[in-house]
Amino acid sequence: MSKTRTDLKAEDLTVSPAKNAVAGPGEMSIKLDLKAEPFSIKSTLKNAVVVAPLSAGAFKERSPKPTTFRKCYQRGELPIALKHDYKGSLSWKVEIETLDYQHYLPLFFDGLCETCHPYEIFARQGCHDMLDRGDTKILPVIPQLIIPIRNALNTRNNQVMCTTMKVLQHLVTSADKVGEALVPYFRQILPVFNLFKHKNKNLGDRVEYGQRKRENIGELIQETLQLFERYGGPTAFINIKYMVPTYESCMKN
């Protein structure tokens, strides 16, 4: 006994002349062309066209908003300049030790989202220079660095993420207790780590020329997590494991 379907909508049907069909006078051949979603009842019909599932876009790059770092540089508020040498390094107009870390360090971390020259160089090198000479000034600024770090990681841009991972590794080892101070903020930082942890380049027997520049995001994430565990104190591993379930301890094993 045939069943009559009552869940079809008018927009699901398209009327078109059937191929190889001869219609008599005043008659029209009808062909059903149903657009159905995967795993729906309509997808079981004979003439249904199953639409592919939409991509969630988890790995899709996201365009960062204009950074405060760029605006401050364009207004001439940053004590930096580009050194015109073969390295294209950063030149400071004042002694780094005399800077207000509460103001300038979050500002340079905000610039980690930049990918354009010269802002990318200024932000990256500025972070490393300030972390090299910050010592005890770094620890009180940790809460102000979390939002810029999260914004940089959420861009999903490979260049930005690799730069941010290297700065995070430098941050953890820059001064005492910094690693432990980061542990309460793992829930803001580590979701992107869990997403890209296994995104490694598999080239078979070919040579990975980007290995020298440390541009493999999967390896950088593993190195960063291990540093978080080593410098994060006794509760670091359990907090990392909660956010990144596939992580294995580098100290207990």
Short recap of the structure:
With about 250 residues, the protein is mainly α. It has helices at about 70-75, 100-110, 120-135, 140-155, 160-170, 180, 185-195, 215-230, 235-245; strands at about 35, 50, 80, 90.
Question: What are the main properties of this structure?
Answer:
253 residues; mainly alpha; disordered N terminus; Serine Threonine Protein Phosphatase 5, Tetratricopeptide repeat; 39% helix
Can you put this structure into words, describing what you see?
- By secondary structure, the protein is mainly alpha-helical.
- The chain has a domain at 68-200 and 212-243: Alpha Horseshoe (Serine Threonine Protein Phosphatase 5, Tetratricopeptide repeat), CATH 1.25.40.
- Helix content is 39%, strand content 5%.
- It contains nine helices and four strands, in the order E-E-H-E-E-H-H-H-H-H-H-H-H.
- The chain has helices spanning 68-74, 101-110, 119-134, 142-153, 158-172, 178-182, 186-196, 217-231, 236-243; strands at 34-36, 48-50, 80-82, 90-92.
- A two-stranded parallel sheet has the order 1-2.
- A hairpin with a 7-residue loop joins strand 3 and strand 4.
- Helix 2 packs parallel to helix 4 (142-153).
- The longest helix is centred in the middle third of the chain and has 16 residues, at 119-134.
- The model is unreliable at 1-6, 10-23 and 27-32 (pLDDT under 50).
